[in-house]
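Please discuss these two lines.
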Amino acid sequence: MLFFALALLGTQAELPVPSTKLVFASCANERMHPGLAAIAAAAAWRPDAAALLGDTPYIDSTDPSVLAERHRSFRDHPSMAFLRGQCTVYAVWDDHDFGLNNTDGNLPGKQAARAAFVAAHPEQACGDGKDGVWTSFRRGEVQVWLLDARWNANTERDAQGRPGLLGEAQWRWLEEGLAKSDASFKILGSGMVFNDATRPGKTDYWGAWPHERQRLFRMLGARRIQGVVLASGDIHRSRLVRHDTRDMVGYELTELVTSPAAQKVGAKADASHANLVFDRGMEQTWMSIEVAGKGEDALLLADFRDETGASYFQTRLWAKHLRGEPRMQKGFVYEESRFGEATWKWAAHVPRDWQPGGPAILFLHGRGECGVDGQLQLAVGLPPALLRAPAEWPFLVVCPQKPSPDEDWEHYERQVLAILDEAVERHGADPARVAITGLSQGGHGAWELARRHPARFRAVVPMCGYPAAPLRGWREFEPRRDFGLDHQSPAAGPIADALGSTPVWAVHGEADAAVPASLTQVVVEALRARGAAPRLSLYPNVGHDCWTRAYGDPELARFLRESCAPR
């Protein structure tokens, strides 16, 4: 359910719009994983619609009888039947269900492949009725276009003689559909990945047609298409990439790569990318997307999930971030700071009646809001609370954005503190009246930066955090080892020693499956053992998102006002 997202948008009385739930998956080979457990988990989540992004199933033949039998057996598989029983399943192909590995539109026998695909997917329109299988559907505030990157690939050439990918008929369909859509979010799905981070020698990805990818990005900008998110599969990894498209589109495009649902991990596809936010190699995965709200206030939550349905990474996007011009909430200002060759974009909330000499808060976001756009860190936590009840938060709130989810906040200690100092000086806040708070990775950051610099912070409010970073980093995170008390408890004492009598209010959900509540309790116990009197809020029946309730509590805002009052 999207209760946490709905809470960001206002009171319950202001929330008549229900959430929309979509599933995305690719690369499902029941010969590799006969139970198709990831598909069954997706069905159990009860989505409103599902989108298969290709290689569903693996066929690798253009023989009509083989095509028909493989589509039939995949469609009739119990897990697929379970999914179809819950929702309409839409699909597009990639290479292994189009015909043969890495093939393009010149493949002999592609007409037989199309006939078998159309027969296997009577629920949807396919292409223009005679060519291709591209299709589109809408649920609530989300419209999805599934792009066919096989049928026309290398069969047409543009005015400069360059080979095409989508074909002019599909281009017209896509551009006209995007221009007419008033959906808050517009998801472009493709079996081929849009980014360039692929295994060496790979030929079937959008980067092999760079002019086509540039045409797509420039069309979005020229048409001022808002709310676009990219979804792809194929490479047998879960990934999140932010495309540097501000000059062409007007905002960064987020690409969500979900693969494989049932196949081996693509170890060679663990390729670097300048704007790679997340990467994980897992054999049975799928992605859920939930959307609540409408227009600029619509919020999208993307969750990468395993074969049990458990989430292992999530990110959130607000529609107001995905616009061709800055249209963020009133009261936020956007800044940049240079550190050598790197540029950090960050934001600060300045109260409408701000007076120099007022207090400040350093807010550290969680893993899902990492990136380099300077805005996504405002999607959850304290920033929305500032907008709901601005009178309760008379603070300059400084919101840096951590570039990488695989590094904890202390890795960027120098940059974060420099940004805090710059914001305090620029807006005239009192450097002796600064508090620190954060959620999840930011909850750990609040504990750790306060431990390292106790004299800088008048109050510390960590939410669903942990005292010690993973032993081998987040790319090799292992829950039993890294979130076990044998590793975490030794880090609690130094935090308690450093904070002394500093006001602390720690928050955690008792039902948190991502970061155990015991990791907050162990620090609170260490503080109390040293004579301190920290406040602790453990919310019954609340999972990882304890922050919506906590930041919405007027008592927490009062605690910070009193802790940061002039002395």
